[in-house]
């Protein structure tokens, strides 16, 4: 293999992360909401969704396939797989389906395991919806946590959020029901209201039953202006599942951490500014931290 081996420094940091997970008392997680101060704001420049790394990791100019990031039209070995994924996802993610999944998985009765056991479980899976990465999820989680730790050393709650944000992908595993990828990964979007055209491969929504349902195909649909995103049903997947797990287990992560977990795949919002009419004031504050995270 031509893949470079991780440095001893990287391995040491991975061991530090593992130690912090296995022995949770070694990591201090604040309960109160963190302040989005001037130092954090300086790292979000120009495009508010763009993270500027301050003396930390260098963001590459292209993805693993030599293309710009999140270019769903670029010819690559993953283009067909990704588009097929979104066609099935957009057709089947309905308001009724999400309600059914939340009812079934909100009981949290599948199995019980530690955070590190979940992380190791994800070593088997590659995200079919991602046009940029073909690495196992365990690598993605460790890289995310380490990048955040390097750029925001004092925000320990954010380090942990980065480490666990994708743990909901265990839904792909037999222990958690072995759901198909279209019900686990991919960009998320609200259900119960009109599908915005900025959604990736939005043309496939025309085959979604809710697209033709007058109760759900208007701007507000089942919701009201400024109702708050916590009142909005999102397409079902790992984001919402991990949010439910953290919330029901009385996590001490601040609301910004929960916001990042539930909406980190909500690209129509944090990349394109869609669906802001559903946000309340707390959402707007938490979105600042999501921009930092992304």
From TrEMBL:
Query: How many cofactor units bind, and how?
Result: Binds 2 iron ions per subunit.
SUPFAM superfamilies xref list: HD-domain/PDEase-like (SSF109604)
Pathway assigned to this chain's UniProt record: Polyol metabolism; myo-inositol degradation into D-glucuronate; D-glucuronate from myo-inositol: step 1/1
| Required co-factors | Fe cation
Q: Which residues bind substrate?
A: 70, 127-129, 169, 186-187, 264-265
Q: If you read the UniProt record, what top EC class would you report for this enzyme, in one word?
A: oxidoreductase
Q: Which GO terms describe its molecular function?
A: inositol oxygenase activity; iron ion binding
What are the UniProt keywords, alphabetically? Ascorbate biosynthesis, Cytoplasm, Iron, Metal-binding, Oxidoreductase
A Pfam family annotated for this UniProt entry: MIOX
Recorded GO CC terms: cytoplasm
Compartmental location? Cytoplasm
Protein's UniProt name:
Inositol oxygenase
> Upper lineage ranks?
Eukaryota, Viridiplantae, Streptophyta, Embryophyta, Tracheophyta
């Amino acid at each position: 293999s031509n893949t470079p081996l991780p440095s001893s420094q990287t391995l040491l940091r991975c061991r530090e992360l593992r130690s912090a997970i296995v022995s949770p008392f070694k990591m201090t997680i604040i309960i109160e909401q963190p302040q989005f101060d001037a130092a954090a704001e300086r790292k979000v420049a120009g495009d508010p969704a763009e993270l500027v790394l301050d003396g930390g990791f260098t963001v590459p100019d292209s993805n693993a396939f030599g293309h710009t990031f999140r270019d769903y039209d670029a010819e690559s070995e993953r283009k067909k797989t990704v588009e097929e994924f979104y066609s099935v996802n957009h057709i089947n993610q309905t308001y009724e389906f999400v309600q059914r999944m939340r009812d079934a998985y909100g009981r949290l009765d599948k199995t019980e395991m530690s955070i590190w056991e979940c992380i190791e479980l994800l070593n088997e899976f590659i995200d079919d919806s991602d046009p940029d990465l073909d690495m196992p999820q365990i690598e993605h989680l460790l890289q995310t946590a380490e990048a955040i730790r390097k750029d925001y050393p004092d925000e320990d709650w954010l380090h942990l959020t980065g480490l666990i944000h994708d743990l909901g992908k265990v839904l792909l595993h037999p222990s958690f029901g072995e759901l198909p990828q279209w019900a686990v990964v991919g960009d998320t979007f609200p259900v119960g209201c009109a599908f915005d055209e900025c959604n990736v491969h939005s043309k496939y929504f025309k085959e979604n039953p809710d697209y033709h349902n007058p109760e759900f195909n208007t701007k507000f649909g089942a919701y009201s202006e400024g109702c708050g995103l916590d009142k909005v049903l999102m397409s079902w997947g790992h984001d919402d599942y991990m949010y439910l797990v953290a919330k029901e287990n009385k996590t001490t992560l601040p609301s910004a951490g929960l916001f990042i977990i539930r909406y980190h795949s909500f690209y129509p919002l944090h990349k394109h500014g869609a669906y802001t009419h559903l946000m309340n004031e707390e959402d707007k504050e938490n979105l600042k931290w999501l921009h930092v995270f992304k």
